[in-house]
Model the fold of this input.
Amino acid sequence: MSAPVYTMRSKRAPSDRAKAFRLGFSAILLSCLAFIGCENFCVNGVADAGVGIAAGTGGSCPAPKQTGNIALQFDSSLTPDTSPWPSDVQHIFVSLRGIEALPTHSAGDDPPAWQELAPDLVTQPTQVDLIARADHSCRPSAFSDAVVDAGVYSQVRLSLIPNEPEASRPVPAENACGSIGFNCIIATNGTVRPLVSDNPNQLHILPEGIAGGFFRVLPDEHIRLTVEFEPQASLIQSAGEAVRLVPAFYVTQQSLCESDR
Done:
């Protein structure tokens, strides 16, 4: 009887094709992991253990949005000798529910383009005295800082609370105008008269009302803006029991204060 014959199979290293397959698969997996969080990204691959892997990508992660910070304050250029401003006007109160800026080259009728400069006003409107002088340029702002898109801005608008607002809308916690509404003029003798304007809901500041015609916000920059009421360029006249005001404002960029840093 012949002796049995045993066949031994030696262990061999994986073929070059198998290596290519595994390396290609790993590359696709790493690509997917690298772009987790990108909504507009895809990896296309064709796996063939005998040939290899062909892979491609489509789309990319969008660049992160660049922003800056704005500290906003109001001031007035009123002086004792301001002429022809009426000497018996002691206060001009307006109630604000929004202050926004429009980037240059954006359409004014495009609501998403407007950037909030005082975001708290949306839920917490406030009343300001337009002729109150700031005791110094670095006084604490009455508004919280705003985070806005970096860019160039050439318009500002003030959104007002009308004297007869909708019941569902928030109003200022304090109202110096009393029962006549939320916008008024108070004379030196204590007389309170409602304030009316051509547009009771908004006041626009166009490029000619901004120093240089625009202001710029650079990425990661913190700037201070002052909206200054200019009584000498404003129009005020009696309108029956009310007072009509056509206000003029001037927006300037101030040096950053230590409290802003």
